[in-house]
Each structure stands twice: as structure tokens, then as C-alpha cells.
Amino acid sequence: MQQYILILVLISCHQKKYEMVLTNDELVHAMVEMYTINAALDINDPSLKDSMSSVYFKKVAELTGHSPELVKNDFDNLILMPDSLLMIQGRALDTLRFLQDKSTTTSPISIGLQ
To answer: What is the pLDDT of residue 9?
Structure first.
């Protein structure tokens, strides 16, 4: 019986390590760009979004300096790591909120009239 418990413990402790090429900061940057591109295109049709994914990844690749395949591969690996995904998404959303707050709190352009 103890052997089975030991085997179960060893199996449950063994977690697959996924190879990530992008750093956490680069992943956050890529995710922010992905959200921004998606919002800019304002596409609500899921089938159209799916066909546009290659365009997204090409644009994010240009902005991050990595190949579209590498970015997509790291995003796919990130999905398999829920804790890391939540952390990266949280940082990306915090960045977007900061940018949104910054854009709404900047003073309007003054043309000299009061």
C-alpha cells in the first residue's frame, strides 16, 4: 500500500516544464500588443478572429522582435501553465489599465483660450 502512495506522490509531484523563449516581460508586452491589436480591429465574430490570428501574431512578432511561430508557441505553452498565465495576464491588464488611465488624465491641448 505504501508503494502505491509513494508512486502517486511522485507522479503528482512531477510537472512538465515547458520551454519558454520569451521572458515574462516580453510575454506581457506581447499580450498587451495582442489585446491592443484585437481592440483596434474591434472584431466580434469568432470565426473572423480565428482567421485573423496569423495577422495578430505577425504584428506582435514585428513589435516584439521575435518570429510569429515563437510568439505563438510561447502563448500555447503559457496556456498549459495556468499560474503563469494568470500572472502574465494580470500584468498585461495592469499595463493596459495604466495606459488607459494615463490617456484620460492627461490635460487637454491648450490653444491659449480660457
So the answer is: 44
Q: Please give the grid coordinates belonging to residue 49.
A: 478572429
C-alpha to C-alpha distances, 16 to 19, 33, 56, 80, nearest whole angstrom: 10, 28, 28, 10
Select from 102, 103, 100 the least CA-distant residue to 39: 100
Question: Is residue 84 one of the residues assigned to a domain?
Answer: yes
Where is pLDDT greater, at 55 or 7? 55
- On whether residue 58 sits in a domain, the answer given is yes
Residue ranges in the chain assigned as alpha helix (H): 2-13, 24-41, 46-64, 68-79, 82-105
Range of the domain at 78: 45-101
The domain total for the chain is 1
